Amino acid sequence: MVARDALAQLTTEIVECRACPRLVDWRERVAREKRASFRDEEYWGRPVPGFGDPRARVLLLGLAPAAHGGNRTGRVFTGDRSGDWLFAALHRSGFANQATSVHAGDGLRLRDAYIAAAVRCAPPDNKPTPGERDRCFPFLVREIDLLARLTVIVVLGGFAYEAAWRVLGVGGHELPRPRPRFGHGLEVVVDRFTILGCYHPSQQNTFTRRLTEPMLDAVLVRARHLAGSASR
Fold first, then answer.
1. What are the phi and psi torsion angles at 72 (to 5°)?
2. For residue 170, what is the enclosing H or E element?
3. 18 C-beta neighbours (distance < 10 Å), count
4. Hey, which bits of the chain come out as E strands?
5. For the whole model, what pTM was predicted?
6. What is the CATH number of domain 2-227?
7. What is the mean pLDDT of residues 36-44?
8. What is the bridge-based pairing of β-strands 113-117 and 51-52?
9. Is residue 141 within 8 Å of 170, Cβ to Cβ?
10. Where are the domains of the chain?
């Protein structure tokens, strides 16, 4: 209960953040102008907090909310093609109770997993600046601290890997040197954590089959094994 309450307080702080003027301007402009196919929807248009099981042993870390995905729905990976891939895989591996997620109140529940983004606001061209990334670090540091049972961090792409590495360093964890190069299937042990590398489930990767369903499933099965999570 303490962790749940603390994560709820952190969520409130994230949602109220206006630390990056460029991101504030972009996320709110997208929410006003909207995509034609979503013109009748009310966009979230604010920072998107992490969500999931407060007792999670597995954290999945993405890059940033999609302009018409998380920035629209208010939940990371929800309502976009990347999320379609991710939640289907989480369901297949027993981390999610359903295979799809289209809006924040659709009944999705995560079991032993928590999902967050390195940057909490949708960035122009999906490219945050280093300064914007660094200003979000304290949120992730606190999330990792509050997820007391966490042992596995699945980084979805090189940007998330860079963020996780820096955040663990800021958090006082001893990092192996030199830092291993990011790649799909990467495993790096940092104190009590194992970082697992996975290509991001973006359309750029899934359409070209750089990332396939079996590849994504294998990473999640490995995460479950390392975390000692029981299958449903």
1. -90, -45
2. helix 158-170
3. 11
4. 51-52, 58-62, 113-117, 152-156, 187-190, 193-198
5. 0.95
6. 3.40.470.10
7. 96
8. antiparallel
9. yes
10. 2-227
